Amino acid sequence: MSGSLPLSTCNSFLDRCFVSTCPNTLDSPPSGETAAHSNKGAQATLPMRYYEGRSRFRIVDVAELWRYRETIWILGLRDLKVRYRQTLIGVAWAILQPLTMMLVFATLFHLMGHMPIVGAVPYAVVAFCGLLGWQLFSTTVTGCSNSLVTNRNMITKIYFPRLALPLSTIVVGIVDLLFAMLVLVGLMAWYGIFPSWHIVTLPLFIALAALTSLAVGIWLSALNAIYRDVGFVVPFLIQVGFFLSPVVYETASVIPKQWQPLYALNPMVGVLEGFRWALLGKSMPPWEMMGVSFTILLAILIGGLIYFRHTERSFADRI
Amino acid sequence: MSEISIEVENLGKKYSIAPQARYQRVSELLQNSLKRVLHRSVCRAKPSESKRSVSNGAFWALSDVSFDVKEGEILGIIGRNGAGKSTLLKILSRITEPTSGRFGLRGRVSSLLEVGTGFHPELTGRENIFLNGAVLGMTRREISRKFDEIVSFAVVEDFLDTRVKYYSNGMHVRLGFSVAAHLDPEILIVDEVLAVGDGAFQRKCLGKMKDVTSCGRTVLFVSHNMGAIQRLCTSALLLEKGCIAKHGDTQSVVDTYIDAIVPTGGFDSIEQQVNDLPGDPLFELIDVRIEQCKKQSLYISNGNPTDLIVKFRILEQVKGLRIWFDVYDPSDTLIFRSFHDDLDSIPSVMNPGDYLVTGTIPSNVFGPVGYRIQLHAGLVGGRHCMPPVSMALQVTNDSSIGQVYPHTKFAGRVMSPMQWRPVQNI
């Protein structure tokens, strides 16, 4: 289907990734207890590892997640391939959605006679920039929140760190983002905007956007495993969040100065404003606002990991 | 070699069977957590002696299970449905956590509780091999190395780039098993996955399992197929209602299990029946046994011939003594009657002494259902020498008939004796 379109090059690239040449091929096995934990590293006598239920407070086992990085990657690739298989225009959807939204809002605000932005950068670019970040968030949060439930059969049949499922959904979000980024580059070239040195911080803000999406997604995935209400909450949350985040407008032009720290309790505020700062060379968003956003982000992330870890052990029984 | 590879200590798993427990409402959650705080000290109690008591909506699927498995040992886990086998495997493969007790594992663990877990219908066979392998704990390098082997074992070479959703059931299952069979962990946990595919593939899987297990790997293997357990396992564990009923060498555990599950059909044991026989001036039954492959059992398979062996004593010279078996089907219809002298040409004359007579029911006669066999002894045109001795026979299907579609429901009373020549082009 997608083979007849230029985008098929992307698919065949993915094919190759999937099958043989993956950037992070491992030497050590991803599962089980590797020599890293063995006493004296003696291969013949692996150490006995004990497991019991009802263990006390546990934090995420990062070493284990790292051993399973290949599984996370493959699960992410699976979602990516499945997402655009049997679609006519494939990954073009990742571009069409923000592009349409941008056009709609640009027209709307044009008709209203006031563009909710400050500075000289055209609205189209500002809005598209925000929509990119927001798309990463909405795709990832939606994917995350369903990740445990849709992979229920795996959870009840195989052991792997459950966190691998929500984490793997970021692959789709990032790939979509990269494709949409091509359009942004085109837009910027069209308007003759040249990024400043701020551009070097872009990966950082992409990582922050990913982290924010995952932080929220991890909460929702664990909640969804037990309370299916989450299925109703997520679309609503994304819709409300769209207007409560500086997606199609800029904070500075809409939110009064004194309310900005409160507004920044939404961690996407810091992320999206950071995005614009890095890409479009806008003026630096106020520090206090960024600080609030990132503190909240950290709180959500750590809380989510703890909650996930806590409920993880009953997933197989309750999902 | 004698190193312990799996150590299980007082493992218990409690399930809540109260209907509201699955999806609690927030209000109930608050209420319950309040209760929990209040009763914390009380609730910490261990599973009681009344093992599986279903009290307060709680149900112990496993309680107080302890055993060790040595390195290289192949432990068969058997038991009736609901005995806790799957729960035990799920705990040991870390899919779910135990409520009490703990367990230790030495080395990498792979569990195979279902064939083709994680297969995605929209992906091709090739992609699914990598996906499934990764999820089961193989590295991509490992999968690449074994790729050809996996493909040729599953016999799906021509469909590698076809999406799995277009696969037939059989292909799906073959591919799933094939990936799993090429895992390379120190400990392998396998649940009943051999009960898939057609007869030929099942045999191939068993062979593969044998290979896998022969390289010193520790294996836990759950199956209802006693034949497979006996062939593969070095020891066995019988679970009953969540507790260990027996743990020891395969043969004795399997025998215990078979004795426990084979319905006696309301009959006393053969021994009991023989002991209870009234005396007879001419004839005394010493023993009657049903054997398959030189092993006494009332739990037989129809792929092998079954011997019916009768030992008896003649107290006075007697002419025309006949011993016969009546075979009844589940609806208690007499299927056939066979006399011990059916193939003789002259009536027998027997002198006092002990005798043994063996009749063989060839393979592919019994269907996979329950039969009742009755032993009679009597004099031609005269009296019966004893009341009949009844035995209930349970038959499993591993016959060579109907292998193409092994799930075809058994119809009729015995297997078809018909011979077919190959289909000819005319």
Describe the structure.
The complex is a heterodimer of chains A (319) and B (426). With 319 residues, chain A is mostly helical. Chain A has 15 helices and one strand, in the order αβαααααααααααααα. Chain A has one domain (87-318). Chain A starts with 7 loop residues before the first helix and ends with a helix. Chain B is an alpha/beta fold. Chain B has two domains: 4-260, 3-Layer(aba) Sandwich (Rossmann fold), CATH 3.40.50.300; 270-396, abc- transporter (atp binding component) like domain (Coagulation Factor XIII, Chain A, domain 1), CATH 2.70.50. Helix content of chain B is 25%, strand content 32%. Chain B is built from nine helices and 20 strands. Chain B has helices at 26-43, 85-92, 125-136, 140-154, 169-181, 199-214, 226-232, 250-261, 270-275; strands at residues 4-16, 58-70, 74-79, 100-106, 109-112, 187-191, 218-222, 235-240, 243-249, 283-292, 295-296, 299-301, 306-314, 318-319, 321-328, 334-339, 349-350, 353-361, 370-379, 389-396. A six-stranded mixed sheet of chain B has the order 5-6-7-3-8-9, with helices on both faces. In chain B, strands 12-20-19-15-16 form a five-stranded mixed sheet. In chain B, helix 6 links the parallel strand 6 (187-191) and strand 7 (218-222). In chain B, helix 3 packs across helix 4 (140-154), helix 3 packs across helix 5 and helix 4 (140-154) crosses helix 5. Chain B is globular and about 80 Å long. The termini of chain B are far apart. Residues 41-51 of chain B have low confidence and may be disordered. The chains are: A mainly alpha (319), B alpha/beta (426). Chains A and B meet through helix 1, strand 1, helix 3, helix 6 and helix 15 of A and strand 1, strand 4, strand 5, helix 3 and helix 4 of B. Strand 1 of chain A pairs antiparallel with strand 4 (100-106) of chain B.
